[in-house]
Write a structure and sequence with these properties.
mainly beta, binds zinc ion, three-stranded antiparallel β-sheet, globular, five-stranded antiparallel β-sheet, 1 helix, 150 residues
Length: 150
């Protein structure tokens, strides 16, 4: 059996796609330094980012509400392998921590970067706060990371 032939290539892929009505609301909110959620008309569920349909009862979620930029860290991990940051297209410096945060007044988790790089300084149940970029453009990258409040 001969060795497989490898071909090196560095593709340049540029994509643009519509964020959708609720996705656009969420991104505009980030551009204003606000976290927006949708509230279900049928059950008490509130979700971030806003969704058209409730993930619990499939009811319409037509009410858009602002939630505090604070929450609770429910899970986290240390990322130590290099890969391209989907926001910038360049390799993100490693290591860094990534977590699942439940914003106050919401019923789901939001996965995002944490400012802490040492997982021994994090714990499940820790209070965290969203940190926004000073210059915002109405895109996901406007949310810099979550930092621990305790
Ligand atoms: Zn519902």
């Amino acid at each position: 059996m001969s060795e497989p032939i490898a071909v090196r290539a560095t593709p340049e892929l540029h994509f643009r796609y519509a964020a959708g009505r609720y996705g656009s609301l969420f991104l505009r909110g980030l551009g204003e330094g606000r976290i927006l959620a949708s509230r279900c008309a049928r059950c008490p569920r509130t979700l971030v980012p806003p969704r058209v349909a409730c993930t619990h009862c499939f009811g319409k979620m037509e009410e858009i509400v602002e939630v505090p930029p604070r929450g609770t860290l429910l899970a986290f991990t240390l990322v130590a392998f290099p890969f391209l940051d989907p926001f910038t297209g360049v390799q993100r410096p490693i290591p860094y921590c990534y977590g699942m945060v439940q914003f106050e007044g919401t019923d789901n988790t939001f996965q995002y970067f944490l400012s802490e790089k040492d997982p021994s300084k994090l714990r499940v149940g820790q209070r965290v706060e969203a940190v926004f970029n000073e210059v915002r453009k109405g895109e996901l990258g406007d949310l810099l990371h979550f930092r621990a409040l305790e």
